[in-house]
Structure formats: structure tokens, C-alpha cells
Amino acid sequence: MRVLAIGAHPDDIEFGCAGTLVNLARNGHETFMLVMTKGGSGGDREGRGQEQLASQQILQVSKLFLGDYEDTRVPNSKEVIDSIEAVINEVAPSMIFVNYTEDTHQDHRNLALSTLSAARHIRTVLFYEVPSTLGFTPQVFSDISNVYAIKEAALKAHASQLSKTNVEGLTILDTARGAAHFRGIQGRALLAEAFHVMRAWLAIDRHDSRGGVRLA
After folding, report:
1. Does the residue 155 lie in any domain?
2. Structurally, how many domains does the chain consist of?
3. For helices 45-58 and 148-157, what crossing angle results, to 10°?
4. Between helices 78-91 and 106-118, what is the axis angle to 10°?
5. Beta-strand (E) ranges in the chain?
6. How far apart are CA 114 and CA 85, in angstroms?
7. CA pair distance 35, 216, nearest whole angstrom
8. 118 located within any domain
């Protein structure tokens, strides 16, 4: 498969689905990332862009598409839909991961809504969670126990953001591990990532590479 992960800001994808991307790459699937902003409201734009490039290398992602929208100002608009669709047309993914539609951050909400339109022909679309996600009810779980150290290394690549949790003494690494343990308990694994389904196909035939969620 060719798999596209979409995030509003640098480190969204790392928190939400980095472990799953690593396991996909290790199993021969080609992975891509689209990050819509350089996160200028959370730090230096160019510095955060470089952090995202470092994370790309850690996650073995084939190509990073780094957008130039202003942080906090990503709209749900035809322009955003078209920009996402242009990447979809280039990558031709059969599976997409993206921010969830319910979130306290407007960029996450608007990106998710625009992706609903841009990914209308994609067979499998899964929403991931980040710390600002609301009302998240996952139906699909991914065991990342074997690759959690790589997920953590990718998060550490975003060094400027590690302490920005708005909770004294808590880092993004603490938050990510807590979420992975909780979703692991729900999914019957040590550490897991969890996803809310927009649309998913079961790929029962092991030769089917069109983007189904495979039966264990």
C-alpha cells in the first residue's frame, strides 16, 4: 500500500500515528506525510520545519509535503481541499490518517473537514487523536509496543515542543506514553495507537493492497 498521514502542525502525526507508520514501512508499505503548517504560533517556523524533516527521517517516511498555511489560520475551504487533493493525486494512497473532526484547535477541525472532501474516493480513512482531541471513540487499534522507542524518538525530534503541554512538569512524551498505555489497555496490547473510522475496508485477501484494514 501507499499510505498518507496528514497533520495540521509539526508533531501532530507523530503523536497520533507514528508507531503505525513505522510498522507499515517495516512491512513493505510506502508512507508519506503532509503537514499543512510549519507551526509558527508554537515557535520559529523554519526551526519547526527542520524538526519535521528530522522526524521524517526517523519514521522512514518516503516523502514529506510541508505546507505553508499560517498556524491557527487553516480554513475549511476549497483552497485547502484542493491542496490536499493535489497531494492525494500525486501519492495515490489507499489509506489516509488525519486529525479528528472534534478538537479544541480550529486547525485540526478544519483540516479534518477538508480532508473528508479531498479523500472522498479513498477506500480507508482513519482519524487519529492528539492531546486537544474531544469525544474520541476509537474502533480500530494498532499495537505499537515493538516500535514505541521510534515513536518517542520522532517526538523528541520536535525539541521545541516537548514542554508545551500547559501542565506543569508534564512533557509531550509523558502525554504520548499515557495515551499509548490507555489505548493499549482498550485494544489488549501493551502500547497502542487508536483510530476513529470514517471509512474502512477489510482486506481479507493478503494480496489485496488497496487499503483495507487487515484482519489479525
Report:
1. yes
2. 1
3. 160
4. 60
5. 2-7, 30-37, 63-69, 95-99, 124-128, 140-143, 192-199
6. 10
7. 30
8. yes
Does the structure show a pLDDT above 70 at 72?
yes
Which of the 8 DSSP states describes residue 216? -
**Better-scored residue on pLDDT, 181 or 46:** 181
Query: Is residue 189 in a domain?
Result: yes
Q: Which residue's C-alpha cell is 508519506?
A: 32
- pLDDT at residue 47 above 90? no
Q: Say if 59 falls within a structural domain.
A: yes
Position 131 confidence tier, pLDDT thresholds 50, 70, 90: very high
Q: Determine the residue type at 28.
A: G
* Boundaries of domain holding 159: 2-199
Q: Per residue in 175-201, pLDDT tens?
A: 999 999 999 999 999 999 999 999 998
DSSP β-ladder status, 30-37 and 2-7? parallel
H helices within 59-212, ranges in order? 78-91, 106-118, 148-157, 172-187
| Strands laid side by side in the 95-99 sheet | 63-69, 30-37, 2-7, 95-99, 124-128, 192-199, 140-143
Residue 68: phi and psi, rounded to 5, are -130, 25
The Cα–Cα gap between 108 and 129 comes to 10
Q: Which of 204, 159, 150, 144 is closest to 48 using CA atoms?
A: 159
pTM, entire model = 0.93
What CATH number is given to the structural domain containing 90? 3.40.50.10320
What are the b/e assignments for 156-191, b being 16+ CB within 10 Å? Answer: bbbebbeeeeeeeeebbeebbbebbeebbeebebeb
